[in-house]
Amino acid sequence: MAGCMGAWRYVTSLEICRSLSNVIGPRHLLCRYNAAYLYLLGHVLELGFGPGVGLKDALAKLGPHGHLYGVDPSEYMHSVASRRLASGIQTGQVQLFSGTAESLPLPDGIIDRVFHCNCYYFWPDLDKACNEIKRVMKPGAFMVTTLSISVLRMLEDYGVFKDVKWQPQPYMEALQRANFTDVNMKSFQQGSFKYQAIFAAVK
Length: 203
Known about the structure:
alpha/beta
């Protein structure tokens, strides 16, 4: 599967789409929680930006001297996000790239903050992706990813994620092998919606 739009992007059955319609809203919440955790400053990167919801929220929180980068393999999502972020792109504060986590079109050591949502379990090579992400991060930078284990389990039960290895532990172990520090996962709840955030830092 290409891209990192989240589970519902790959649902093709109308019946399942209707049954899972209640998780589309939470996906947007996860994007916004990511931006909230980052204390945005400097150069910020979103992986798998999808329709640009997370980047749009990040742009609103970023100061006038900050810079946003987005990388996503989907040309369609690039088109959608480009429209949503047109003003930031025009001013040069936002740059969107077509690419993957395993091969980021960015120079070494320029990123202060990284965030992604519903993404890591679509990366073909976790170790390569984690090492590549670390390459573009500055010393002292950190990363956060959000997910909802309860939603992912539901998708697995529906058969949508039959062959997707979504469990967070392999991803966290790959982060540690890439020498990220302070790798940990915390659980949160907003109203009735339960979700998790995985944190990792670069020394």
